[in-house]
Amino acid sequence: MANPITITTAPCCWGVDDVKNPHLPAWQKVLDEAQAAGFGGLELGPYGYLPLDLDVVADALNKRDIRIVAGTIFDDLVSPGNRDNLLRQTDEICALIVQLPKPETHPGQRFAAPYLTVMDWGHDERDYAAGHSDGAPRLEDVAWRGMIDNIRAVAALARDKYGIRATIHPHAGGYIEFADELERIVNDIPAELAGLCLDTGHMAYSGMDPVETLRRYWDRVDYIHFKDIDAKVFQEVMGDRIRFFDACAKGVMCPIGRGSIDYAAVRSLLTELGYAGYITVEQERDPRNTGSILDDLAASRDFLHRMGFRGGRASAA
């Protein structure tokens, strides 16, 4: 690949998705192991996982030579009554990441990191329908417009106050998951306000072809997540009434290259279209099942290196 890409990772690889989960590892352990695995970048993780203390976090990152490439809003984007909470999170996350050691901006990168990745979450009726487009309820028009207004408010605050690019991330189990919802989001959120963070695993889990979807929305793709899906486990969980993260606890996500996603085709597309910047490797799991995390991350990085992606700190891929 001609353009520079840095492969980064995220706390979800250690099972960090719900900050109220009593089994989460210490955030310092995640930083230590991300460094040991050779990653030069890391996402901040869900709101409240890493402390919001600038001096503490900056010192921890500098000691490990790690940069934060994105903060995360992972919350109920639908409810009008959640607007103040969403804006408070946006303020606090952006105020932190904009002052942390800045990730390198690569030639050809559309928007500079760090980003604010925005995902909808917190609705049982959609969580149990993750991956099942035909059975998942859709938002009524009034509720959809309320969600759009919330996203616009978050993205405008991040952009106008902090200069941070918001990237909307379709996520299994939320109200932005399936192809029709992604198309509607792109039509309803202007490009000057927010881009997309497309995730190969979530696209595949939700019935979208990652290569076709990346190509279709390429002019909006500012940031990319990589994960892979174990086809056997996926077939099993699609036959169950199961929450998305319970499916992850069963091992539906696997190291990159061991699953069903065609990464040769993904690499060809990214080379053809000239993607530059950051790609974050993820593999959600139960936080009590982290014994294989370093081996899994090494397997993902080794596979991506063989595919022509650089593994850690930035240079040409």
Labels describing this entry:
single chain, 317 residues, alpha/beta, 8-stranded parallel beta sheet, two-stranded antiparallel sheet, 12 helices, 10 strands, disordered C terminus
What would your notes on this structure say?
With 317 residues, this protein is of the alpha/beta class. Helices cover 39% and strands 15% of the residues. It contains 12 helices and 10 strands. Strands 1-10-7-6-5-4-3-2 form an 8-stranded parallel sheet. The protein has a two-stranded antiparallel sheet with strand order 8-9. Helix 3 packs parallel to helix 5 and helix 8 runs parallel beside helix 11. The longest helix is centred in the middle third of the chain and has 22 residues.
Task: Give the ordered list of helices and strands.
Answer: EHEHEHEHHEHEHHEEHHEHEH
Contiguous helical run count: 12
In percent terms, what proportion of residues is strand? Answer: 15-25%
**Residue windows where pLDDT falls under 50 for at least 5 positions:** 313-317
Average predicted local confidence, pLDDT: 95
Helix content range of the residues, please? 25-40%
